[in-house]
Amino acid sequence: MSASNIPDPALLRGLTSRRFGRRDALRLSGLSALGLALAACGVEGKGKPAASVAPDAVAKFWAGKTKNGHVDFASWPLYMDPKKPELAKFTAKTKITVKYQEVIQEMGPWFAKVQPQLSAGQSIGYDLMVITNSFQFSQFRDSGFLAPLDLSKMPNFAKNAAEAYKKEAFDPGNQFSVPWTSGITGIAYDRKKTGRDITKLADLWDPAFKGHIGMMSDTQELGNFGLMAVGVDPAKSTEDDWKKAAARLKEQKPLVRKYYDQSYIDALGQGEVWLTQAWSGDVFQKNVSDGTDFKFVVPEEGGTIWTDNMTIPITAKNPVDAIELMDFFYDVEIAASLAEYISYVCPVPAAQEQIGKDAAKRSGDDRKAMEKIATSPLVFPSQADYANLHYYVSFDVVAKQQAYQKIFEPIVLG
Amino acid sequence: MTAQTLQRQVAEEAPAPVRPRRRISGTGLMHAYTWILIAWLVLPIAVMIAFGFNDTPGRYNQTWQGFTVKWYGRLFEYEELTGALVLSLVIAVVSSVGATALGTGIGYALGRYRFRGSGALNLVMFAAIASPELILGASLLSLFVSLGVGPGVVTITIAHIMFSIAFVATVVRARVVTLDRSLEEAAADLGATPWTAFWKVTFPIILPAVFSGLLLAFALSIDDFVVTQFTAGTTTTFPLWIWGATRIGIPPQVNVMGTLIFVGGVLIAVLANVRSRRAQRD
Amino acid sequence: MSLFRRRLAPYLLVLPGGVWLLLFFAIPMITMLSLSLQQGDIVSGYRFTGHWQTYLDSVEAYHTQLVRSLVYGAIASLAMAVLAFPVAYWIAFHGGKRKPTYLFLILLPFFVSFVLRTISWRQILTDEGPVLHPLRELGLVSASFHLIGTPFAVIAGLVYNFLPFMVLPIYVALERIDPRVVEAARDLYAGPATAFRRVIFPLALPGVFAGVLLTFVPASSDYVNSSVLGSSDTTMIGQVIQAQYLQNSDYPTASALSFVLMAVLLIGIFAYARLLGTEDVMKVAAR
After folding, report:
1. Structural domains of chain B, count
2. Fewest CB within a 10 Å sphere: which of A370, B17, B37, B158?
3. A-to-C residue pairs, Cβ atoms closer than 8 angstroms
């Protein structure tokens, strides 16, 4: 940055001296011009809430699009083995190169970042992006920012995906998305530091851990935990419930070290926090890559389940290549390979068997680790497991979402 | 303001011999204090440079694990980081040239002439320099969003030119104010038109100041974070990349690049200084 | 003809840059003002409705952060004034031939990216870092003591990042003091302390005030230091504004808060300039 900010005497004279009458007249006319200018401004909205896809939209979008040999893929950290074996296999098979970038950390900032560009019809530099089924998903869809998928181009998905993923509430019939993975938000903790097992949400309010508790900064995640902590089912919550949950979270504030995006896992590793709101797969991966022994638990009062989905932005330059890559991930072997590393909920049930087979081929620690994944309820939950898991609060009207945001945001923003 | 213009100011004004003062222990204390403060200012730079030599296995460059120079060889390992750095350099070049072109005119006019609106213009210059970057960035984003223009490289460059103009103008103005008019008049007496007089007489004299302004604009641009974050969209410049990487872990390559930029900047400043001193001696 | 051109010359020179600034400095302020009076949401768009209640709502929601930012900015400026004065004094009066070198050293941090500097501080002050780890080993601080996340760390960061903006104006003011004035004071039997208190310091004061002006504004509106070195308890208004623009896409609230911040700072500056009388500040500022 520069150094010479010393004000000029003339400027300060200008700052503080009186104006003449003629100037006043000029100012008045200026003001009315200003008024006109102000009123003329506005921000173009691109859609209506809950707009549905026109029947020929799919055909219209995909008409004339060709393969270009490259995909720019935007995703979250810890969603792929750093060596990217699956992408290597894809390129070997199809000759399409993939540039994979872990640029998404939180849904709010991601939407805010790409919205102006998508609104202006500009490319955001990515053909494929992974977005969560949070409120922002509706914003993306309703703004018309997502390309309608041509499911005829996705045979693997049709064959291998679990039925539940073909009729999700937030995108029935997979008009715009197919799942990348699902995940569970629970509590991760360092047993050595906490001194005892953590089993309940209430443990996050334990004063014994003051200054070493981590929570998430995403209001949907935070709000869900608050609601479950006061015994309310998020799906059935009302605005009054939100206020009660917010009050409970405010009580927790003095104990919380920080409200994190995905960097909670880093803080846990560094010992800044001893227990934290966390995503299931991250803990597995941290243990494997850094040799730590953190535990993950779905709290008794309940945990949150969410789905991260592959979508194609409407301004993507290489949609044909992108949809081919999307389908590639639904090949059973590839899905198994992904699940083995990222340890999140796999949308391909046949992968469970595949991992079992892969485990049998390995030995020792590797084998144990893989068997653990094959049998883990965190990667392949049973029906009973799902009973204790809740989705994010959903909003049918924008005003409700804004109210929700205004209730929970002050907790995170100090 | 660079050390160069400061130094010129010092040389031009008081030809100060060491003033005899009788502050005994006071002086010694202040001397020590000054060096302690300078050490404190330099500490994070030293840490940054040091960790560019850290022999760390992965991406977490936090604890010292041994000395190595390998990162200097593996500088371009991270494609996105290299891309961000290159983009920062390109934007810096374009915006500094643009800002200098636009700002020199303003600086010269303010220093040389008295005209209606110069007061208001001075005020605008002051406002542009003193405005918090947050407000500059936020207002630009408001503009682009209202116009439906997508943020990106172009908007970043526009923003950088905008905030650099005032700095360039200030530097040039300071030099022009102390200009000896008699040279221009002599040129006019010898039959030169104002245009010729400007380019053949005045401009070479103020060129060092213009160049200082250019360097200043370049430095401001390559380092800028706040305004860039508001006008970038998904584009990534070097400071933005670092910011994004703090969550995942900053690789040593960032330290190496920071070190190289630092050393480069220092060298240029020192060289410019030496040249101007030599020019003055002539 | 040439006289006309000469009269026109300054305007022509100023035109390109002036237009640029008009388009990208002045007009954006207007659009920001307009945005602050709009309603809607990001999906269906924002419309201008003259809805000024946004100002009241946002100030009500975030007045804590606003006040906190001004307080942190003020503390940081004050700290900078205290820290910078002795240095500026020493360089001005005892720097001799090495003055440019000292000033150059003071400016060294600016050759490193702002973000990188702040992150380096984070590395130095982190829980198990080179400062706290030995202190903890020696038992001088408790196990749960931490620097990162405290107001101290944030203010220290602000002081570090903006200190040169304070040193330079004070230096310039001190540099201009005619040595004969001080000698005259000595001749009138003033001891060193008195000479300082009644002659040097008052003459340097405009520099101090200029420095405070140039550091208070950026320090109060900063958000990088608080993001990197702070916690949610230290949230400053800059972070709120940034979050509303770049995380929530809530442009009206964000713009309203920006204007409130600007207004507060401008009022402060005007009051400041009036208080001092612009004369004094001009003496320092004249280059």
Report:
1. 1
2. B17
3. 162
Q: How many whole angstroms separate alpha carbon C248 and alpha carbon C142?
A: 39
Q: List chain A residues with CB under 8 Å of C248.
A: 108, 112, 405, 409
pLDDT per residue as tens digits for the range A117-165: 999 999 999 999 999 999 899 999 989 999 999 999 999 999 998 888 8
Residue ranges and CATH numbers for the domains of chain C are 54-285 (1.10.3720.10)
How far is the C-alpha of C50 from the C-alpha of A241, rounded, in Å? Answer: 32
Positions of chain B with pLDDT lower than 50, given as ranges:
1, 10-14, 16-17
Q: State the CATH number of the domain containing residue B114.
A: 1.10.3720.10
CB contact at 8 A, C17 and B109? no
Which residue from A285, A304, A308, A284 is spatially nearest to A184, judged by alpha carbons? A304
Q: Is residue B22 part of a domain?
A: no
CB atoms within 10 A of CB B9: 17
Touching chains, B (3+ CB pairs < 8 A): A, C
Q: Which domains, from first to last, does chain A contain? A: 58-182+306-375 (3.40.190.10), 184-305+389-412 (3.40.190.10)
Question: How far does C250 lie from chain A, in Å, by closest CA?
Answer: 9
Query: Which residue segment(s) compose the domain that B183 sits in?
Result: 79-250
Mutation pick from C113, C161, C226, C249 vs chain B, by most beta carbons of B within 10 Å, is: C113
pTM of the predicted structure, to 2 decimals: 0.85
d(CA C250, CA C85): 43
In a domain, B31, yes or no: no
A307: helix, strand or coil: strand
DSSP string, A182-251: EEEEEEEEEHHHH-S---SGGGGG-GGGTT-EEEES-HHHHHHHHHHHTT--GGG--HHHHHHHHHHHHH
Per-residue pLDDT reduced to its tens digit, C155-172: 999 999 999 999 999 998
- Return the closest-CA partner of residue C124 out of C79, C156, C151: C156
Chain center to CA of C76: 9
Partnered with residue C164 across adjacent β-strands are none
How large is the angle between the packed helices A239-252 and A219-229, nearest 10 degrees? Answer: 90
Q: Rounded to 5 degrees, what angle do the CA atoms A371, A374, A379 make? A: 135
SS3 sequence of C238-286 = HHHHHHHHHCCCCHHHHHHHHHHHHHHHHHHHHHHHHHHCHHHHHHHHC
Interchain pair C245, A115: CB under 8 A: no
Q: Is A165 strand, coil or helix? A: helix
Which among A84, A87, A105, A347 has a CA at the least distance from the CA of A217? A105
**pLDDT over 80 (residue C190):** no
